Amino acid sequence: MNLPSSKALIKENQEISSWRIFLLTSATLILLIFFWRMGDFKQDPFITETLSIQGDSLSGSKLFKINCVGCHGISAQGFVGPDLHEATQEMSDKKIINQVIRGLTPPMPSFEIEPQSMADLLEYMHSLN
């Protein structure tokens, strides 16, 4: 009877363990990415309401000048905060709303804003393109 050596068994077990670790790590990463992306699809009532409202660019411009010029500059060209001229092309409206109401990237503060005002601000941002 030809039995494998203990070195061969150890090597085989190490290979199996390596594959198990690889598969477990891959599955974990896939699940993390899946759940992270699911956060993009949650229905926030504020966002849903804001997106259902037609904004007014002129009102949004006034709101911008009151609240945003200190960081984004008088013509949204960027200062402390980024240039916003292409923000609506680079980010979805939902992500822009999240950024404004939650201040996701410091030093951006979060703002308490009514849905109509947020729709106005969003419309103004679209007019910057």
UniProtKB/TrEMBL annotation:
SUPFAM superfamilies: Cytochrome c. GO terms for molecular function: electron transfer activity; heme binding; metal ion binding. It holds the Pfam family Cytochrome_CBB3. Residues 55-129 form the Cytochrome c domain. The chain crosses the membrane at residues 21-39. It comes from the Bacteria. Keywords: Electron transport, Heme, Iron, Membrane, Metal-binding, Transmembrane, Transmembrane helix, Transport. The keyword Isomerase does not apply. The keyword Repeat does not apply. This is Cytochrome c. It comes from Prochlorococcus marinus (strain NATL2A). The lineage of its organism: Bacteria, Bacillati, Cyanobacteriota, Cyanophyceae, Synechococcales.
